Amino acid sequence: MGTQNPSVHPHAQARVGATRGLQHDNTRHTTRFTVIGNHLAQHRELSLLAIGLGTHLQSLPKGAPADIKTLTARFPEGATRIAAALRELECHGYLRRERVRTPSGRIVTRTVSCNRPGPSPRTAHRPEPSAAPEARPQPHPSRQKPGGERPPQAATRTPRKPLPAVPRPECHVPALFRAAADLLADLRRHDSRLLLSVPDTAHLTPGVAAWLERDVTPATVRRALTADLPPEGLRRPAAFLAHRLAAQLPPPAPYREPAADPPAAPRNPLRNCDGCDRAFRAPEPGLCRECLRRT
Fold this sequence. Notes:
The protein is mainly alpha-helical. It contains 10 helices and 4 strands.
């Protein structure tokens, strides 16, 4: 493998090797740099936008704004694409968004960027390419069935692809999540193919809650999820519903000014009755109701 062809000029060999593949012209950084792991920069399931956005978030200082409005003003991508990239990072453990209450009582969203996320139940870890397959013990020849060797069985099953990310509501309201879970459990009454497992229901519940939070009625959400279903069988109904929840998410409800209270009716002043000298309220001096009834 290390023997070179003596008939080829050495300069020609160097010229061919230099044009093959990526080359680097690196300069060592001493200030203003961020260390990014290859597990993020070369992630196999994140989109290019999510990888770039995750790199940008890790380079920001502590306390910098990282909401969708700020990122949309900073980059040319729209709010929808940036929100989808943030959900990708959140699904794979590179981002956490928590609702916290400030000392003044206001509820705000705190964004946490993780440079080395731990194992997440939504992502399946792939084995390292260099890991050697585990040796399996071979049965004794005397225990094998006649007619040849038994067919080899697969050591492990292929990991199931994680479900697509779903939108999440701005506020964690328990009643809203209960209504979303009940709506998902009721979908099987409209189509038997939409029978969901407990883990699938837990994954889809925040997406339905995000719809209900935007003043969408449960009947409208149910109609959006069950309308125009493919005639052929649904191989993964949970993945199909997750895609619809993310792709057809309606915009937030328009802000409405609270209705002003009606003006209070004017209150008449107290007056003394001209007949019985009893106090009563009336716009003009005169008789009270009792005296008017007697006359």
